[in-house]
Amino acid sequence: MNPFDTKPAPIERTFESFCELYPTPYDPRETDPYTKCRVILMNGTEFEAVKFSHQIDRHIADPDLRRELAMSRRIEQQQQKKLANLKPIGESILEHTIGYEQLAVDLTAHLAKRVSTQKVKDALDLALLEDFDHLYRYSDLLEMDAGEHAERLVGRYTEIMPGRPTISEHRFPTDGIPTPLGADAPLFDRLAACIITASEQQTMNYYMNVTGFYGNDLGRKLYQEIAMIEEQHVTQYEALEDTNASWLARLLMHEYAECYLYWSCEQTETDERMRKLWARHLEQELSHLHKAAELLERFEGTDWRQVLPEPDFPDPLRLESNVGYVRAALLSAQLTYKDHAPKPVQELPGKDPFFVYQDAVHARLDHVASHAVIDATIRRLGHDYRFELSPHPVTELQPREVDNTQIGRDPRIPGYTGVMPG
Ligand SMILES: [Fe+2]
Ligand SMILES: [Fe+2]
Ligand SMILES: [Fe+2]
Ligand SMILES: [Fe+2]
Fold it and tell me: Where are the domains of the chain?
């Protein structure tokens, strides 16, 4: 589909009433987990749309442009409100978090399978194992605090077991900042950078906000710790976006990504009511995209084809199970992100800033919440909570009676001893 070939309604004809903005929420038990993930993904995409539009407002003082931005931004806000209220009242902060991390795993894996630029794939593969580990740590908290098994929430589509242990994910702030993609990068890779930046930013914001609202100290500390990793993820992904593009060229790219995502949601949705909602939002986004193209021409004299020379949408983005891909990626649990590229911790010099930062933030092992939550589960149950379809592919991460705090941060641990499943 070429979204520029459509004739969308003017933005002023797309406002919705508060009645339309308060839909019946999804059913926490019956709704497919990937439908819930799509709601989280698009909620995050709308946050980015709103925030990016506000940033343009703060950098360009042209009153005509500001009025145009205010029009589409009001719709982005309406869309976000509708998506936020699809979450049912009874779904807890932590249950909702499981959806965030399942989305992070299966969105990241899907993008990593499809991108063709090595540095984008490296960034995705690296963070994939970290969000995968977050899913495991939060799931153990859910088992401890609510006696609930997260495998039900993820529909058994996504395994729940250790990834790169969260304790090992804390890197020196200047590590892991890749160089940007150029305007000539493949369209899907540019889209991937946009999409994953918004999604990880939403996770970061969610944890920043809910940390203080969780009901016990261990949970508050776990949100606090994992939120710091989401900060790293946003830093690495936003660095990939094309910084040479103008504000309005980037606005066009934002609207194009929104169109592509709603179109993908509509193409892949299994719930008929939700499919109609995605279709409705796609119509609104097409109006934004055409407006962004008009603004680019009017204020910068640039034709949209210069930004998007191949405007046909790539194949739809699909949220689905990625068990095999994640299992293969787990063999890279020993990697960290050094400068612009992943590197095994065993290859870092002894005084590397990675170790300096690790020592600074992990003064005492029993104060590391991501470790403490597994330790506490083991003390209570005799083993951790996990959901595996077959033994863990990394031998060192197979034992369930002890939490491994060495993989990925202790250079004395030899390289890859993992075994691929047969
Ligand atoms: Fe939007
Ligand atoms: Fe995460
Ligand atoms: Fe993340
Ligand atoms: Fe939009």
Answer: 3-324
